[in-house]
């Protein structure tokens, strides 16, 4: 029976060692899980922060694009009005020159014909 007892003791020692190895591997795995959960929490926080920032930037961008459209419209309207003013000025100048010419002719002393 001593051989059986020795064999049983050997199996028992191996079994205890296997259980200890499994426990050690489980602890290592648990440590890795905790690390990844912490990383996941950090990433989710970063995503929330970036999402909020993206939302603010999109809102600001929309306001700026609307303001730019207002500038574009105002510039186009002003340029159109300015072009009309230039055209009117040219017409007025032309009419004024023509009238001035007519007045000059009317006020010139008449030449005596011989």
TrEMBL record:
Residues 12-60 form a coiled coil. InterPro entries: SSNA1_fam. GO terms for biological process: axon extension. It comes from the Eukaryota. GO terms for cellular component: axon; centrosome; ciliary basal body. Keywords: Coiled coil. This is Sjoegren syndrome nuclear autoantigen 1. It comes from Collichthys lucidus.
């Amino acid at each position: 029976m001593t051989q059986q007892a020795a064999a049983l003791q050997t199996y028992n020692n191996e079994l205890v060692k296997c259980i200890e190895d499994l426990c050690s591997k489980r602890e290592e795995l648990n440590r890795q899980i905790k690390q990844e959960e912490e990383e996941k929490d950090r990433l989710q926080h970063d995503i929330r922060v970036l999402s909020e920032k993206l939302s603010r930037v999109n809102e600001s961008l929309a306001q700026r694009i609307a303001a730019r459209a207002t500038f574009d419209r105002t510039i186009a309207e002003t340029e159109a009005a300015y072009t009309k003013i230039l055209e009117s000025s040219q017409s007025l100048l032309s009419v004024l020159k023509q009238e001035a010419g007519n007045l000059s002719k009317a006020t010139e002393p008449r030449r005596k014909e011989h």
